[in-house]
Amino acid sequence: MRDFILKRMIAVILAFIFVYGFYVILHGHISPGGSFAGGIIVSLSFIAFATVYGIDKGKEKLPEKFLVWVESYGTLWYGLMGLVGICKGAPFLANKLAGIDLGVPGTLSSGGLIGLIGFGVGIRVASTMITLFYTLMEGDA
Amino acid sequence: MQFVAVDYWIMALSLILMGASLALFFIKDLIHAVIVYGAYSVTMAVIWLLMNTPDLAITEAAAGICTTVMMMVAIYRTRRPKKGNKDEN
Question: What global pTM score does this model have?
């Protein structure tokens, strides 16, 4: 697409959608939303970029190799966070049982490991959605 | 059984929901079907919000937009019949 207005609008809006997606991911335990919805919002910001600026420029900015890397390590991050509980002598994915200080309820730090786990799941969902979009867009029509 | 004002809003939106999902059966053009599906998704998000589940509402809004985009891309790959030529439909 070669429209000037669309390109400038996306250039302004993109950063805000991106930051809002990460806000939804990281505040998943105290406000509506979560890692799945936030990850989809993050991926939608990039899908808008790749739609307006062209799929080739999108692949230049975010190569598929990097997406596979993020997808794999996001899952591994989830597993490692679960192993924290086992290392402390508690069940898998234990939060308070593992001796983590939960702080004041309602604040951002009151989730313990939940925020870190949600971050891994969120970037994984985002990279999966962008990979799906690339797979559908490429190839001969 | 007593109804409050929110219930009437949910009933009215449910009628739109039923209309949209029934219309999906009878629409032949795929692009139009995807647009109606987007309307269905937005209505469902508002219903979740009225039923005090903002968590599901935000997920429905995000996932609805994402599936609509994916279907649009998939339809972009198909051949569309020319206008006025109804036999090839």
Answer: 0.85
